[in-house]
Write a structure and sequence with these properties.
With 504 residues, the chain is an alpha+beta fold. The protein is 31% helix and 23% strand. The strands form four sheets. Strands 1, 8, 9, 10, 11, 12, 13, 14, 15, 16, 17 and 18 form a twelve-stranded mixed sheet that branches.
Length: 504
């Protein structure tokens, strides 16, 4: 990067918009830089990572993952399964919403039933759709009745989409896309869209002594290099960095701390399986053989990722990629598959992508070049982030670069994504044998019984190819050395910032 560009980036970082007069926070303040604005704040409705990373501060779930991706209590202090179709949760007492109202079992019941209601169109519905009844024996007990045993129930309840909301607030506002009704460590104090969000410490937070930082300011800075420049000049205390070239630069800075952990989110190249020629699985599978995944990791991620199958490579459920079909590129085989499908000379196509990291423009550029080897001319349909989300929701694409939220339990990611009724099956993919494997995997409670099912399922998904599974990126945060106590999580969640301190 030349000196002129670095100077421009430093000027950008130094010229970050100031907070409005009179809004200067009192006490310790931590400023985080991120590259995307939220797409709404209603935890039961949103799908974008950018929204989840704000929800991390504002809401709690019944249970959550710790930094070792183990389930621990959040709003529930304990739970038990008296039989495979019943789950009982004992709630913490004295938890208060930001409004001051006490959180009770009625709010949990309201939230779960809201997510389960098809009219809500919650992406979290498929995580818990086995629940047939939510019972509240008393103010601090919730009993779930299940249609059948669900191995991933706790994992589903740990999703940000299952954050517990205040019943009275939803009834008052209709939805929470621009309002907050949570119990989280921070409260929303101010929000200037596409600029900054200011969060203040929740004085009634149920974890005694937390959070330790009084104010968190989240600044939206779309350019990743500018995020790093902001941390270098101390305009930012911390930044979420995910572009490989910028991570390389950050690791060279002696005064900065680069925290990294293998991630569980999955980069995919997806198809609308109802549109020609992608209604033919041979065409989709041909792409899988043509693409060199490790080359994409090396070029687009600078090596800060792991090639992965349908189950995130960092989880114990994943089959090693050297045992999966199509993970060694074979252009000749790809050409044969295209010829069998009636495209011996290839064809032209479009790839929907966005300049943001989630939109994967760097990945799209590498794939565009690799597809030329099989006669496919790909044009990048590069659109701004909001339009990208709208196109994703509307299934308005032929092919698309995506970053999907993975999970330590294979059922929670795979069922909602690839079952014919899955809440985020944006591929419009239907395959009865794969549906049956997904259904078998989720009802087996013993790991030994589930492993062969998911091994078979991985191979079936790769060959049916509703999407091409590429890699799992590292989770990376760049911090000033004086930010202490923050723990990074493989799913990218930021809620452990509640334990961080600033020690200048």
């Amino acid at each position: 990067m030349n000196a002129r560009r670095w100077l421009w980036l430093v000027v950008v970082a130094l010229a970050l918009p100031a907070l409005p007069a009179g809004a200067a926070p009192v006490g310790t303040t931590l400023t985080i830089g991120v590259d995307q604005e939220v797409v709404g704040l209603d935890p039961n409705l949103v799908t974008a990572f950018s929204s989840f990373r704000r929800i991390d501060f504002l809401y709690n779930k019944l249970v959550r993952y710790n930094d070792r991706l183990e389930i621990e209590g959040d709003l529930a202090e304990s739970w038990e399964f008296p039989d495979p179709r019943t789950a009982i949760f004992r709630l913490r007492r004295g938890v208060r919403f930001h409004s001051g109202a006490e959180m009770t079992s009625e709010d949990v019941k309201f939230t779960l039933e809201r997510v389960l209601d098809p009219a809500t169109r919650s992406p979290g519905r498929s995580f818990i759709d086995v629940i047939t009844a939510v019972e509240t024996p008393d103010r601090y007990t919730v009993r779930l009745r299940l249609q059948f045993p669900l191995a991933s129930l706790l994992s589903g309840l740990a999703s940000a989409n299952l954050s517990i909301v205040e019943r009275a607030a939803v009834q008052r506002f209709g939805n929470l896309q621009r309002n907050v009704a949570g119990t989280g460590p921070y409260m929303l104090a101010e929000w200037v869209p596409d600029n900054f969000m200011r969060l203040t410490r929740n004085p009634n937070y149920f974890r005694r002594g937390l959070p330790r930082i009084d104010t968190v300011i989240i600044r939206v800075i779309p350019d990743q290099a500018s995020l790093l420049a902001g941390v270098r000049t101390r305009a930012l205390d911390m930044a979420t960095i995910n572009q490989g070239a910028v991570i390389v630069q950050a690791r060279r800075e002696p005064n900065l701390v680069v925290l990294q952990k293998p991630g569980i989110n999955l980069r995919i190249f997806s198809f609308n399986t109802t549109r020609r020629p992608y209604d033919d699985p041979r065409v989709r599978y041909a792409f899988a053989w043509a693409i060199d995944r490790q080359a994409i990791v090396n070029t687009a991620e600078f090596g800060f990722a792991a090639v992965s199958g349908p189950i995130p490579a960092s989880t114990p459920w994943a089959t090693p990629v050297n045992r999966l079909p199509s993970y060694t590129p074979d252009v000749a085989r790809a050409r044969r598959l295209l010829a069998e499908a009636g495209y011996p000379s290839g064809f032209a196509t479009r790839i929907v992508t966005s300049p943001t990291y989630e939109g994967g423009i760097a990945v799209a550029q590498v794939i565009q070049e690799q597809l030329r080897a099989i006669g496919v001319t790909a044009t990048l349909d590069t659109i701004e982030w909001g339009t990208y989300i709208n196109r994703w929701v509307a299934r308005d694409f032929d092919t698309m670069i995506e970053l999907r939220g993975g999970d330590p339990d294979p059922d929670r990611f795979l069922y909602r994504t690839f079952h014919s009724t899955g809440a985020v099956n944006n591929f419009l993919f239907k395959d009865a044998p794969i549906d049956r494997l997904l259904e078998r995997g989720r009802v087996n409670l013993e790991a030994a019984a589930r492993r062969p099912i998911y091994a078979e399922l991985e191979r079936a998904l790769i060959e049916a190819a509703p999407a091409i599974f590429l890699y799992t990126p590292m989770e990376t945060q760049v911090l000033q050395g004086y930010v202490r106590g923050f723990k990074i999580i493989g799913n990218g969640a930021l809620y452990f910032l509640e334990e961080a301190t600033i020690e200048r």
